[in-house]
């Protein structure tokens, strides 16, 4: 690989994982010139592109142009329905069938073009096909550029809970073209922004302070601010995954707000009523509240976190989601299926303050119940 294979003006974040290391390319219109990098992974063959019905008309032509520019004639893309409901067994079966119907060999490469739903299900298909083939992530939502395309968590949801079926399978390359975000609806931009704020809240207080100043610019699509936010988020995630690929330690911090958030998502049926990033926003506010109630975090820090999320337009309380009758027992049952549960006890990601997250197992269930009862009270 030569530096001339990387488009000018590209930030390159390296995720160091020994033989599974890879580059994350970030930049405005970086996809336009990414053909040689894709060709290097596919050894000059066409990748099997997986995308969704919204993304295909908007961004597949750019990818196909890129491939043709590198002498690769694209094959017909596999186009799945858009949205969280696609991350289920039925669509996984359909995707696997479409991939295997192509008579693939182990050298085949899948390419996920889309948001976290497409990235997660395609990554899981790559982990499963012929017991593991390569895949490339071309994330097109803010959430997938700052989070889901990086780190190798792949999978689907189950009626039993969120992401309960899946595999760790790292991509070979990530291409985050921030210009693709120009077509992303504002609600989806905001949902992705919640995961950006997460990095500030778990261990980067300086980044959180930058977001307090510049968050509106990121959300509004200012190209410099957006690119900085995506690159810093990828750096933050790469630093954590690089030392704890399979979540036996610090990687769990990336789950701030998710134990609550996943339960809220399950309660709303993994659908458009509550997006993942929105659930994470509410979940992070609840995690700060819980930390305050346990005497671990100053109330002023919790208020700062909540105020920033709310100021950009994110929900911060379950009651911010209209038309849902929340059931605290149901939420607690869902939380008990969290992947961080050990010996029957939930591991919570808590905070000592802004940018200082840690995990704790011995949280009094009565405090959690009261917190949720207060949070869902009208
Ligand atoms: N693997 C991980 O580490 C990880 C991390 C965070 C989240 N996730 C998962 O990611 C999923 C959420 O991802 P998401 O928020 O990207 O949702 P998504 O994939 O559903 O995309 C959101 C919506 O935006 C549309 N879209 C995508 N790109 C677009 C573009 N450029 N222009 C216009 N529309 C576009 C999609 O069609 C969809 O309707 C959840 O399932 C979550 O669990 C995984
Ligand atoms: O990469 C990680 O690790 C994360 O926890 C990132 C989260 O934002 C993401 O939502 C992830 O899919 C949650 O993982 P899970 O193991 O709790 O399902
Ligand atoms: Zn998440």
Automatic annotation (TrEMBL):
Boundaries of every 3-dehydroquinate synthase C-terminal domain copy: 192-341
Residue numbers binding NAD(+): 116-120, 140-141, 153, 162, 180-183
Function comment: Catalyzes the conversion of 3-deoxy-D-arabino-heptulosonate 7-phosphate (DAHP) to dehydroquinate (DHQ).
Residue intervals of the 3-dehydroquinate synthase N-terminal domain: 78-189
Origin superkingdom: Bacteria
Entry's localization field: Cytoplasm
Swiss-Prot/TrEMBL catalytic activity: 7-phospho-2-dehydro-3-deoxy-D-arabino-heptonate = 3-dehydroquinate + phosphate
Alphabetized GO MF terms: 3-dehydroquinate synthase activity
Cofactor(s) the record lists: Co(2+); Zn(2+); NAD(+)
Binding site for Zn(2+): 195, 258, 276
EC numbers, comma separated: 4.2.3.4
Annotated cofactor note: Binds 1 divalent metal cation per subunit. Can use either Co(2+) or Zn(2+).
Pfam families assigned: DHQ_synthase, DHQS_C
Keywords, ordered alphabetically: Amino-acid biosynthesis, Aromatic amino acid biosynthesis, Cobalt, Cytoplasm, Lyase, Metal-binding, NAD, Nucleotide-binding, Zinc
Descriptive protein name: 3-dehydroquinate synthase
Family designation: Belongs to the sugar phosphate cyclases superfamily. Dehydroquinate synthase family.
């Amino acid at each position: 690989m030569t530096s001339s294979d990387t488009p000018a003006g590209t930030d390159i974040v390296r995720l160091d994982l020994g033989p599974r290391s890879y580059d994350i390319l970030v930049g405005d219109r970086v996809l336009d010139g990414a053909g040689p990098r894709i060709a290097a992974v596919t050894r000059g063959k066409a990748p099997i592109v997986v995308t969704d019905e919204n993304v295909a008309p908007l961004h597949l032509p750019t990818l196909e142009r890129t491939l043709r520019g590198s002498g690769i004639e694209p094959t017909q893309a596999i186009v799945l329905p858009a949205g969280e409901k696609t991350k289920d067994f039925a669509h996984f079966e359909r995707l696997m069938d479409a991939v295997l119907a192509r008579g693939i060999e182990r050298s085949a490469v899948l390419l996920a073009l889309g948001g976290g739903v497409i990235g997660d299900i395609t990554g899981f298909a790559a982990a499963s096909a012929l017991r593991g083939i390569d895949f490339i992530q071309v994330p097109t939502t803010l959430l997938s550029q700052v989070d889901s395309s990086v780190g190798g968590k792949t999978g689907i949801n189950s009626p039993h809970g969120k992401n309960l079926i899946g595999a760790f399978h790292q991509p070979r390359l990530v291409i985050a073209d921030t210009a693709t975000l120009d077509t992303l609806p504002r609600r989806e931009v905001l949902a992705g922004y919640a995961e950006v704020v997460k990095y500030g809240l778990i261990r980067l207080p300086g980044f959180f302070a930058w977001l307090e100043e510049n968050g509106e610019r990121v959300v509004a699509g200012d190209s410099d601010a957006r690119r900085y936010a995506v690159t810093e988020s990828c750096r933050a995630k790469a630093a954590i995954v690089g030392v704890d690929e399979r979540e036996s330690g610090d990687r769990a911090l990336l789950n701030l707000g998710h134990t609550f958030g996943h339960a809220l998502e399950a309660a709303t049926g993994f659908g458009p009523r509550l997006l993942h990033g929105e659930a994470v926003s509410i979940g992070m506010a609840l995690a700060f509240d819980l930390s305050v109630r346990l005497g671990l975090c100053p109330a002023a820090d919790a208020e700062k976190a909540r105020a920033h999320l709310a100021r950009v337009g994110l929900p911060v309380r379950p009651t911010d989601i209209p038309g849902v009758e929340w059931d605290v027992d149901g939420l607690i049952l869902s939380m008990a299926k969290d992947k961080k549960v050990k010996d029957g006890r939930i591991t919570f990601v808590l905070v000592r303050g802004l940018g200082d997250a840690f995990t704790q197992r011995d949280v009094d269930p009565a405090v959690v119940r009261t917190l949720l009862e207060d949070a869902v009270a009208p």
